[in-house]
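Entry 14. Ran structure prediction on the chain below.
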Amino acid sequence: MYVSFCLEDIENNRRLQTRQFS
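Output, structure tokens:
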């Protein structure tokens, strides 16, 4: 569960970074 959450957080962060980059 915790790992899944961590993974989701990382993916969300990546998406956020991409949006900021845009």
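Helices lie at 2-21. Will compare against last week's run tomorrow.
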